[in-house]
Specification:
1 helix, three-stranded antiparallel β-sheet, Ubiquitin-like (UB roll), 13% strand, single chain
């Protein structure tokens, strides 16, 4: 199929326009999915970290069963095979 339907008028054929629109729609959908993932991560981050970026007081992180605070905290080096657990402490009770 030629790029231009009529070389004198220099316009793209309808199929090319449809292809470009479909590609743009797919990119918009992918972008929207990425934005939703980032929003979800930001929400999760607020649950675990405080406004200074430090681990919240009632959230414990364990790396291979050892409290990360007993290591280098959030700076603990990982090799990729560790088991990481996030545990939220529950406070409160009877008065």
């Amino acid at each position: 199929m030629p790029l231009f339907a009529d070389r004198g008028k220099r316009h793209a054929p309808l199929q090319l326009v449809e292809h470009l629109v479909e590609g743009h729609a797919a990119r918009l959908q992918h972008h929207q999915q990425m934005v939703e993932q980032v929003r979800g991560l930001a929400h999760q981050r607020l649950l675990v970290l405080d406004e200074r970026g430090e681990l919240r007081r009632l959230v414990n992180v364990y790396v291979d069963g050892v409290d990360a605070r007993d290591r280098d905290g959030l700076g603990t080096e990982l090799t990729g095979g560790e088991e990481i657990r996030l545990v939220a402490a529950i406070a409160g009770g009877l008065r």
